[in-house]
Amino acid sequence: MNTGSNESAEAVEPVGGADAEPVLGSRAPQYVQSRRVLHLSWQVGVFIVGLAVVVAGIIMLPLPGPGWLVIFGGMAIWATEFVWAQLVLRWTKRKVTEAAQRALDPKVRRRNIILTTIGLVIVAVLVAVYVWKFGITMPWKIKE
């Protein structure tokens, strides 16, 4: 199993200039990487901390809090040590960038503005019908 240490044969050196992808593999200090047991302990610690952050993010999804942001933070913690997390994070960044570029397309923006306007008009009509039919009263009965 490739844990992403620099000792693996799968480490990829960047090719090109400033736009080159960073090297895949462990970012642990050299002192830690040079000792097998210490490096394994380091990896277990990174995995546990990353897992705690990802679980906290999953808990925040239905609850108040920045769930997705915390999940991506946990993935970034894992990506400091594991190649699989680096690849997942790289893929996610690419997909988010592509979605942002599509959202900035003038045709897509125009369509989104039109759909939002139609939605707001429908909500306004429904609120107006409710106020016309029932007046400005709350739908629940509160006795003072």
Note down, in words, how this protein is organized:
The protein is mostly helical and 144 residues long. Helices cover 64% and strands 0% of the residues. The chain contains 5 helices and no strands. Helix 2 runs antiparallel to helix 3 (67-79) and helix 3 crosses helix 4.
Lay out the secondary structure.
Blueprint: H1 30-33, H2 36-60, H3 67-79, H4 83-103, H5 106-134
Helix pairs in contact: 2-3, 3-4
Offer a quick outline of the entry.
The protein is built from five helices and no strands. The chain has 144 residues and is an all-alpha fold. The longest helix is centred in the C-terminal third of the chain and has 29 residues, at 106-134.
Structural class: mainly alpha
Rg, rounded, reads 25 Å
Identify the overall geometry: elongated
How much strand? under 5%
Helicity range: 55-70%
Task: Count every helix, treating DSSP H or I runs of 4 or more residues as helices.
Answer: 5
| Terminal-residue CA separation | 68 Å
The multimeric state of the shown protein is single chain
Query: H/E element string?
Result: HHHHH
- Low-pLDDT runs: 7-13
Total strands: 0
What's the rounded overall pLDDT mean?
80
Mind summarizing the main beta sheet? Answer: none
